[in-house]
Amino acid sequence: MSETYTASITAPVNIATLKYWGKRDTNLNLPTNSSISVTLDQSDLKTTTSAMTCSSFTKDRLWLNGEEDLQLSESKRLTQVLANLRLKRKEKEAKDASLTKISDWFIHIVSINNFPTAAGLASSAAGFAALVACVAKLLQLDDDMTELSKIARQGSGSACRSLFGGFVAWEMGEHSDGTDSKAVEVAPLEHWPQMKACILVACADKKDVSSTSGMQLTVKTSDLFQKRITEVVPERFEQMKKSILDKDFELFAELTMKDSNSFHATCLDSYPPIFYMNDTSKKVVRLVHKINAFYGKTIVAYTFDAGPNAVLYYLEENEDKLMTFIYAMFKNLNGWENKYNGDELNKFIKN
Ligand code: PMV
After folding, report:
1. E strand or H helix at 293
2. Containing H/E element for 119?
3. Does domain 196-350 have CATH number 3.30.70.890?
4. From the centroid of its chain, how far is CA 221?
5. Ligand 1, residues 78, 211, 267: which to mutate, most atoms within 8 A of Cβ?
6. Stretch (H or E) spanning 147
7. 36: burial class by Cβ within 10 Å (0-12, 13-18, 19+)?
8. Which end of the chain is more exposed for a tag (fewer CB within 10 A), N or C?
């Protein structure tokens, strides 16, 4: 029996509250702006990845949600990510002759998402983060998450942020080789444990414009885009980090909603236009603003990635207030308990 090594890991979905949209280098996945995300709790949406390497394997193989990806060798991003991880192992082996030369062995990878893939729920982020963290563990690399984030970024830009929990920034960097384009922790989840997220799945189908082709169309054709990357986002990046460190929910929420709107505006300003939000998404936007107006303060924020599904951020203390209204709007759908039907809802409906 040949010698084998195995590793297993889970990585959570991260949802950007300050969006990455646009690449200045498509090969290295270098962004045109810095971004910020909140990595959801591990128990919710996540990818679980296991890997095995063995001297007798004859090729790299990947199974995604139970089906083998037979195009693996044609996936430039995946092969680039694996090559970078193997290179790190090779460097380690060169320094320590007692190490088995597993950098030359092929790897089998099994990856499972517990949520719809490619439906604007950041599946590629969790997927590539899990793959990088898992293979790094398999190859016994000593690199920290920020170092690994530079490899995960090459698989899918937003994946670099999923290597951390909590509040994470992806610093765009300035160098053309990508050595300073990396994810860093702004604050761990424990810093602001009262922050909660709720995902409203408006449609779980695969999106029809991938984020890669969507963002490059925006870069090429949108007039709004230049203002967004040079003026709007750099200022928002600093403000949002401060709002997180200060636990200023109202400011965090306002910046999050404005940034989602700004990103979708550049999509609409692309030519031909890209529509990720649908009528249900717009209904959610209106509802959130109505709820905040009803309470006279911002208690909930929405954000939409490259798809119609809404992610709502709120503080735990406001969960019942928020769910009352979400229930009122979507109670005809399955899966609700009829526990949110109080006086507040009646007042709101009369408004
Ligand atoms: O990482 P990608 O290539 O799937 O792009 C992600 C783009 C957004 O989700 C819309 C924004 C973001 O920062 O995650």
Report:
1. helix 279-295
2. none
3. yes
4. 25
5. 211
6. helix 145-155
7. buried
8. N
Query: pLDDT tens digits, residue range 16-32?
Result: 999 999 999 999 999 99
Dihedral sign for Cα 168, 178, 28, 231, please: positive
Atom of ligand 1 nearest to the CA of 14: 14
Dihedral of CA atoms 293, 294, 298, 301 in degrees, nearest 10, equals -90
Phi-psi region of 118 (alpha: psi -120 to 50; beta: other; left: phi over 0): left
Closest alpha carbon to 22 in 229, 192, 190, 296: 229
ipTM: 0.99
Query: Could you tell which of 13, 21, 216 is best to mutate to test the pocket of ligand 1, judged by most ligand atoms within 8 Å of the CB?
Result: 21
Three-class secondary structure of residue 195 per DSSP: strand
- Which atom of ligand 1 is least distant from the CA of 306? 10
Assigned CATH topology for domain 4-188:
Ribosomal Protein S5; domain 2 (3.30.230)
Report the separation in Å between the CA atom of 294 and the middle of ligand 1, taken as the mean of its atom positions: 32
DSSP state string for 5-72: EEEEEEEE-EEEEE----EEETTTTEESS-EEEEEPPTTSSEEEEEEEEETT--S-EEEETTEE-TTG
Cα separation, 336 vs 334, in Å, equals 6
pLDDT at 273 over 70: yes
Beta strands in the chain (DSSP E): 4-12, 14-18, 23-25, 30-31, 35-39, 46-54, 61-64, 67-68, 106-113, 166-171, 182-187, 195-200, 300-304, 310-315
Strand, helix or coil for residue 314: strand
- How high is the pLDDT of residue 328? 81
The pTM (predicted TM-score) of the whole model is 0.92
**CA distance from start to end of the chain:** 73
CA of 323 to the centre of ligand 1 (A): 27
Three-state SS for 273?
A: coil
For ligand 1, atom 6, the nearest C-alpha belongs to 158
Is residue 63 within 8 Å of 109, Cβ to Cβ? yes
Q: Are 157 and 138 in contact (CB under 8 A)?
A: no
> How far is the centre of ligand 1, averaged over its atoms, from the C-alpha of 119 (Å)?
12
Domain positions in the chain: 4-188, 196-350
